[in-house]
TrEMBL record, chain A:
Residues 9-240 form the ABC transporter domain. PANTHER family: ABC TRANSPORTER ATP-BINDING PROTEIN, ABC-TYPE MULTIDRUG TRANSPORT SYSTEM, ATPASE COMPONENT. Gene3D superfamilies: P-loop containing nucleotide triphosphate hydrolases. InterPro entries: AAA+_ATPase (IPR003593), ABC_transporter-like_ATP-bd (IPR003439), ABC_transporter-like_CS (IPR017871), ABC_transporter_ATP-binding (IPR050763), P-loop_NTPase (IPR027417). This is ABC transporter ATP-binding protein. Signal peptide: none annotated. Pfam families: ABC_tran. It comes from the Bacteria. GO terms for molecular function: ATP binding. Keywords: ATP-binding, Nucleotide-binding, Transport.
UniProtKB/TrEMBL annotation, chain B:
The chain crosses the membrane at residues 29-48, 60-79, 105-133, 145-166, 172-193, 205-224, 230-250. Pfam families: ABC2_membrane (PF01061). Its main location: membrane. PANTHER family: INNER MEMBRANE TRANSPORT PERMEASE YADH, INNER MEMBRANE TRANSPORT PERMEASE YADH-RELATED. InterPro entries: ABC-2_transport_permease, ABC2_TM, ABC2_TM_bact-type, ABC_2_transport. PROSITE patterns: ABC_TM2. This is Transport permease protein. It comes from the Bacteria. Belongs to the ABC-2 integral membrane protein family. It is found in: Cell inner membrane; Membrane.
């Protein structure tokens, strides 16, 4: 990517208020660089799907604009849509059509000649391991296959920006991994990827940059590495041969007995684990295994969202007081 | 998208619509053929033989054939587009087109072409069946063809508007039941409006289907209750008006975009 090439996505002060008065986006701004693997996270109803809807022109913004590789979604919709591939959250293809036809027709909607469309349909259906189902009715496919079909369909115009809105929801671990392998390959080949997911370990493993949205506002927008570095506390679950009723007191570590064989230890990241093991060992306890209690990103996500809500609550209370 | 791209997109929608019509041919092509055969047997043969000749010296069977063919064309064009586009809305498959770079007019033209195609296929089938019951000589082939295309286009556009507004399948059944069928039966399919007394004759003149049926009848038999120039003017006005409405709905995203 040349240093002068425009960002893959620039969102400027995007607002959306639905006709029922719900303010889904309250001035969202963010930038995604070309080639990035970008996570857009947020709880249900945070505004993720509205933002993606505006980027894909399914939702009309109330104000603000978005540019895809420098092309305005508002002013040059057709040109901007040529650059985007969308994998939506809900299944949105005709279930009575065949996967092959769904892909070829999708290419046709982008003005891609049928001969090329047929070649691409074969390529992507094979890459997503759907070729043996290409001539079956789509309704006969399993949930995971339908999700992979939507990825294959989104690749038909070979987009520069691929947007995946919770593509692995309800998909088993094996298929999920194969999907990520495919998307990682696409990203490595130069396609910018924006991902929303509720599986935060996926975002942690795959994405380089992240934005967290809550109540229509971006509450965090940084690199994954920098965000994870801010997490100063970790919780471990230790499997122990026999946990006594009275646990040792270790400075800087909070211990909690879960059952007779399991103990939870919450400690600062700067604290070494040796003192923990030494103290447990001194009590005659043998640690047989240990694991992180939660995904690190999950821990941060909950904190950021809760913090944002506390701030909003304070602000709302302040406004009420002003009104009163 | 450039003009070649638009043509590819248009071709894709039309092809998909025709594949759909052929895939469910037992629902799209056979029922109207059976219904019209019954009309020919009951009204044309059994009752018509007792009526004798009607306007212009034609047998009653010859007189109702153009009306019944046009009735098949408009109801099938309407039914095709309303069920196909609403089905795409209902299954959200319409989003495939809405997120693509296709301009709105390509989407509209594609669906209308698909619906007109079904109307023409059904019309041709009904005409072939009619030839088993009577003989026909098409007097004005170009007028016949033009009235078929315009009539089918008008009701395709109307069906599209209906599908855009529809929120459930019942909504696309309401208009054919309460508007389309009464207008068709009162549009001179089975009788000449000259047979009506006032004020029914004047009231009939505001029924757009009357102009379509009579334009087609003029093309086939050479007789009409209305001036052929007026009939084509009315039909063209409906095509333009409904196309503007449909394009505006697509532009505003009514029922399609949030």
């Amino acid at each position: 990517m040349s240093p002068t090439s425009p960002p893959a996505l620039v969102v400027e002060n995007l607002r959306k208020t639905y006709s029922n008065g719900v303010e889904a986006l309250k001035g969202v701004s963010l930038t995604v660089q070309p080639g990035d693997f970008f996570a857009l996270l947020g709880p249900n109803g945070a505004g993720k799907s509205t933002l993606i809807g505006i980027l894909s022109s399914l939702v009309n913004a109330s104000s603000g604009d978005a540019q895809v590789f420098g092309v305005s979604v508002n002013k040059q919709r057709g040109k901007a849509m040529q650059l985007i591939g969308l994998v939506p959250q809900e299944i949105n293809f005709n279930q009575f059509e065949k996967p092959f036809d769904i892909c070829v027709n999708e290419a046709g909607f982008y003005g891609i000649p049928r001969k090329i469309a047929i070649e691409r349909a074969e390529k992507y259906l094979k890459e997503l391991r759907l070729w043996d189902k290409a001539q079956h009715q789509a309704r006969m496919l399993s949930g995971g296959m339908k999700r992979r079909l939507m990825i294959a369909r989104a690749m038909m115009n070979e987009p520069k920006l691929l947007i995946l809105d919770e593509p692995t929801a309800g998909v088993d671990i094996e298929i999920r991994r194969s999907m990520w392998q495919f998307v990682s390959g696409i990203n490595a080949a130069g396609t910018t990827v924006i991902l929303t997911t509720h599986y935060l370990e996926e975002a942690e493993q795959l994405c380089r940059n992240i934005a967290i949205i809550d109540h229509g506002t971006i509450v965090e927008n940084t690199s994954m590495k920098r965000l994870l570095a801010t997490l100063d506390v970790e919780t471990f679950v230790l499997d122990i041969n026999q946990a006594p009723t009275e646990l040792p007191v270790i400075p800087g570590i909070s211990l909690r007995r879960l059952d007779e064989h399991t103990v939870e230890a919450e400690m600062s990241r700067s604290h070494d684990l040796n003192s923990l093991f030494a103290a447990l060992s001194a009590q005659g306890m043998t640690v047989t295994s240990m694991r992180n209690k939660t995904n690190r990103l999950e821990e941060l996500f909950v904190r950021l969202v809760e913090h944002g809500r506390t701030e909003q609550g304070r602000s709302a209370k302040g406004n009420e007081e002003k009104v009163a | 998208m450039n003009s070649t791209g638009n043509l590819v997109a248009l071709n894709t929608i039309v092809r998909r619509e025709i594949v759909r019509i052929m895939r469910i041919w037992t629902q799209t092509l056979i029922p109207p053929a059976i219904t019209m055969t019954l009309y020919f047997v009951i009204f044309g043969k059994l009752i018509g033989s007792r009526i004798g000749t009607i306007e212009g010296g034609f047998t009653y069977m010859q007189y109702i054939v153009p009306g019944l063919v046009m009735m098949s064309i408009i109801t099938n064009s309407y039914g095709n587009i309303s069920s196909s586009f609403f089905g795409a809305k209902f299954s959200r498959a319409v989003e495939e087109m809405l997120v693509s770079p296709m301009p709105n007019w390509v989407i509209l033209l594609g669906y209308v072409t698909g619906a007109v195609t079904r109307g023409v296929i059904v019309g041709a089938l009904v005409l072939i069946i009619a030839l088993f019951f009577t003989h026909l000589h098409v007097v004005h082939p170009l007028i016949t063809l033009a009235s078929v295309i315009l009539g089918a286009t008008i009701f395709s556009l109307a069906g599209f508007v209906n599908a855009v507004y529809a929120k459930k399948f019942d909504d696309i059944a309401l208009v054919p039941t309460f508007v389309l069928t009464p207008l068709t039966y009162l549009g001179g399919v089975f009788y000449s409006v000259s047979m009506l007394g006032e004020p029914w004759r004047t009231i009939s003149m505001v029924n757009p289907i009357l102009y379509m049926v009579n334009a087609f009848r003029f093309g086939v038999l050479g007789v009409s209750d209305v001036q052929i120039g007026v009939a084509f003017t009315v039909m063209l006005a409906f095509v333009i008006g409904l196309a503007i409405v449909a394009l505006q709905l697509l532009k505003r995203g009514v029922g399609l975009r949030s």
